[in-house]
Amino acid sequence: xxxxxxxxxxxxxxxxxxxxxxxxxxxxxxxxxxxxxxxxxxxxxxxxxxxxxxxxxxxxxxxxxxxxxxxxxxxxxxxxxxxxxxxxxxxxxxxxxxxxxxxxxxxxxxxxxxxxxxxxxxxxxxxxxxxxxxxxxxxxxxxxxxxxxxxxxxxxxxxxxxxxxxxxxxxxxxxxxxxxxxxxxxxxxxxxxxxxxxxxxxxxxxxxxxxxxxxxxxxxxxxxxxxxxxxxxxxxxxxxxxxxxxxxxxxxxxxxxxxxxxxxxxxxxxxxxxxxxxxxxxxxxxxxxxxxxxxxxxxxx
Length: 301
What we know:
Elements: E1 2-6, H1 13-24, E2 28-32, E3 37-40, E4 47-50, E5 53-54, E6 60-63, H2 70-82, E7 86-87, H3 91-98, H4 100-109, E8 117-120, H5 126-132, E9 138-142, E10 151-154, H6 157-169, E11 174-178, E12 186-193, E13 196-204, E14 219-222, H7 227-240, E15 244-252, E16 255-262, H8 268-274, H9 278-289
Parallel strand pairs: 1-2, 1-6, 6-7
Antiparallel strand pairs: 3-4, 4-5, 8-11, 9-10, 9-11, 12-13, 12-15, 13-14, 15-16
């Protein structure tokens, strides 16, 4: 098969591993810089051009779209969909997962476990907003934040009021969430491919830190999932419509709750922690599913 990886960083671990895994399985794999693609959308035959020439016909594309280029990146993916190319993650699903509010509303509607969450821009009663999610300690998140940036733990109601009012002063959209104390600064990253959890790791926050992101000093270890945790991850991926994703779960006293569904999860942490060939599993999924026009949404939505 001829497969394109849409990525701005050919030297990144995840991109390199995808190329290695694809070539090892006998595929031709090209790395295409998403921002250097441009689209012919006016002709009867939609096309993606790159470096002055139309791109060849690919059997599949693997989007690795950074959060900072979501709008343009999903537009490129959608153009490939219009051309009948199989996208590992479809444009609509990527956009859906990148909108924190929309994704949580969809997960909530489908009964997927979530922390108690409030959404606000200019609440008239900050105290009621704090009370609504169970009081302090609580977590305040910028809606547009990524990789732990814009996430603040407020340990007292007074601190929560001050933080919320500060964000309000910046005209920022915020999520206010209950703090899952029993998780102990740890979360579980479940890597889902084709509706199955193929690998999982526990990420423990560094001492004095409540965010467990690996690039913030968190440590990753192998973890055995319960049936409920596995089902929660699979359901979350299904609700988002993502074939490949990372589902971040906290272990709460009433069962697992989903913190985030990541449409471009990194491979380095999960492969190193589990020793599994996750990149190879992604290509195995492509081999089974990549057919012309096998796109559920046809670029709509």
